[in-house]
Design brief:
Layout (H helix, E strand, L loop, with lengths): L2 E9 L8 E6 L2 H10 L9 E6 L39 E12 L5 E17 L6 E6 L8 H23 L12 H11 L4 H8 L4 H21 L14 E2 L1
Parallel strand pairs: 1-3, 2-7
Antiparallel strand pairs: 1-6, 2-5, 3-4, 4-5, 5-6
Helix pairs in contact: 2-3, 2-5, 3-5
Amino acid sequence: MTTVRLPLFPLNSVLFPGLVLPLNIFEERYRAMMRELLKTSEDEPRRFAVVAIRDGREVAPTAPGLPDQTALPERGPAAGFGADPIQAFHRVGCIADAATVREREDGSFEVLATGTTRVRLISVDASGPFLTAELEELPEDAGDGAGVLAEGVLRAFRNYQKRLAGARERSLTGAELPDEPSVVSYLVAAAAVLDIPAKQRLLQAPDTATRLAEELKLLRTETAVIRHLPSLPAVDLTRAPTSPN
């Protein structure tokens, strides 16, 4: 078992290998994390782990809340995640490599990272200025029939895109889609309009074939829904939102 200890960045989203993650960082705990990452040589990867939040708040309260105006704001690296923060997170996440870390004049950061490797969360340490975690790297096994499933998923995804574009009365990008099964599985998982639990199930699938088979079912279901609800709102598949962490 290969384990690694890295800074931990919980988000209200799921990061997949190969996908780009823009971040707008203003909380002190994450500023401290970025300052630490900047100590790493530019020749070395500046890595941190991203996990999706299951029960907690991405941004900690910084002022008295309602209805109790006397309540104190939460402080510290685990603010918003309870007394045992590991219980607030999904257990499978993704390592992110920060290609760009730019500090602004006000001390906040603009970060552009890319997902690299899936990891399983083993433990969380809240003793420092930011959360760190011990993580087990997860291999990406192909599984049985991944190639054939990838072809079916690509066909279903193109149909899904067309239906979604029609529902929004606009065209989506005509860029070429990849054909490598694991890349297809992660791209479709990230691009499809699904809630966090559904995306999390795809991230933690035991192998590529299982992920693709689940995506095929989801795409067919979602396409059928869009067909009957042509005014269904959806996010733009060609853009990734910046997390206001």
